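Module 6 notes. Inverse folding takes a fixed backbone as the condition and produces residue identities as the prediction. Think of it as a translation problem where the source language is geometry and the target language is the twenty amino acids. Below is one complete input and output pair. Work through it position by position during the lab.
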């Protein structure tokens, strides 16, 4: 099934973490979320526990339509598989 017009958004968030440089440095991460529009993506991100717990703020939201020469289409799949993460050492050996 198609994702009912769901789009992929990358939300770039910033936060200050007391455990890193005594909180003087702003850290950033990208969080990917499926949503119908940027406003819904923002709402989803802001409702996440880690967003609230770390007092994050949103620096920007990017809709991801394509990567290289490929279009991005979301397909709903309630049986999510955990994605393979290649460690630093594994990545070096590729």
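Target side of the pair, the amino acids:
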């Amino acid at each position: 099934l198609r994702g009912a017009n769901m789009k992929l958004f990358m939300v770039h968030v910033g936060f200050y973490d007391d455990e890193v440089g005594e909180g003087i440095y702003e850290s950033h991460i990208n969080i990917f979320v499926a949503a119908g529009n940027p406003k819904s993506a923002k709402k989803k991100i802001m409702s996440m526990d880690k967003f609230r717990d770390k007092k994050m703020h949103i620096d920007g939201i990017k809709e991801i339509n394509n990567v290289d020469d490929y279009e991005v289409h979301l397909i709903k799949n309630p049986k999510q598989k955990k994605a393979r993460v290649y460690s630093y050492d594994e990545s070096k050996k590729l």
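Reference fact for the lab report: Residues 49 and 62 are 21 Å apart (CA to CA).
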